[in-house]
Amino acid sequence: MKTLQIGMDWFPDKQGGGLDRYYYDLTRYLPQVGVEIAGVVTGPPTVSEQTNDQVRAFAPRQSSLLKRLWGARQTARMLLQQDDVSLLVSHFALYTFPMLDQLDHRPFIVHFHGPWSLESIVESNKSLGFQARKAMERAVFSRANRFIVLSQAFKDILQHTYDIPGERVQIIPGGVETDRFATSVSPEAARAKLQWPQDRFILFTARRLSKRMGLGNLVEAMASVCQQYPEVLLMMAGKGEQEQALKARIQELGLTNHIQMLGYLPDQALPMAYRAADLAILPTLSLEGFGLVVLESLAAGTPILGTPVGGIPEILRPFCEDLVLPGYSPQNIASGILEACSEKRHLPSAQVCEDHVRKNYDWSVIVQQVQASYQEVVNEDS
């Protein structure tokens, strides 16, 4: 089976979000189960060389929208003419839209990573372009034989927001490279390597610094937490448009000794950062389709508290109910952290965390489910 995988941005170039990370991992693991890849993304010209011509960049990601759309269309046309592609797979509606008329009658699957049009409103509080984005999504979705989502939460969005019949939607959770995160380094050694203090209770979060990630509420929660447990230290990794606002609020609340903003942490530094923490935290407000950082933290042996938003509780509740916060307000987040500090909340051991993720979410497990879904759609079409 050969697939044309339509992505967004090339992860090693942008070090982007969950969609880019998922696409990058999927294109590396699918060939291991007999699925050939022809991929298209934005990125540098070196993408083709990095992937032995499996994935090609149709335009630099900083290019104008028109250049990116034209590049996606032309590159897809070339690949569809040259290669025996038996299945088309979309991960991002924007770059799939300009090639819709070239799909012919090939079977078509959409990996739905989130409501692109709705996210634009949540992030910026602006409706500019919302209708155009929604129209593009609907045009792409109308051609799909099947949708793959990471959680029931996103299946619900497809059904209720885009009117997609439930029988066309399959839930396959995200995957993680457990070997990369399951480091044998002790938390003490990890802290020494990162030059983090040994005598503090350390919380860690790695998020894009945007509104829907809930980091403002986490900062507010820390004001309450540190009144009772002044030894608590929050390490916050990430970059984004909320950076200056968060720094200002930390200063206003007098939390400069309790919250350190680390800036962007490269992907290879994350396993050590998770390992060095006593507890990770995910304070998302909305539209969290899965929460890959949940798997990354658990794979590193560090329990993580998450808000009951989107796909987060779908991962955490079957594993450990106490890892799900009562809500996403500052009070809810503070309550969860305080209960963890006082041992009123059960935190699973490092080994239990690692074993759970390896058994259920390692890419070697997940990719077989994706391959089976692809094969089923191809067989139905033949």
From TrEMBL:
Record keywords: Glycosyltransferase, Transferase
An example molecular function term from Gene Ontology annotations: glycosyltransferase activity
Glycosyltransferase subfamily 4-like N-terminal domain segment(s): 17-180
Domain Glycosyl transferase family stretches: 188-344
Pfam families attached to this UniProt entry: Glyco_transf_4 (PF13439), Glycos_transf_1 (PF00534)
Matching InterPro entries: Glyco_trans_1, Glyco_trans_4-like_N
Protein's UniProt name: Glycosyl transferase, group 1 family protein
Species annotation: Acaryochloris marina (strain MBIC 11017)
Organism taxonomic ancestry: Bacteria, Bacillati, Cyanobacteriota, Cyanophyceae, Acaryochloridales
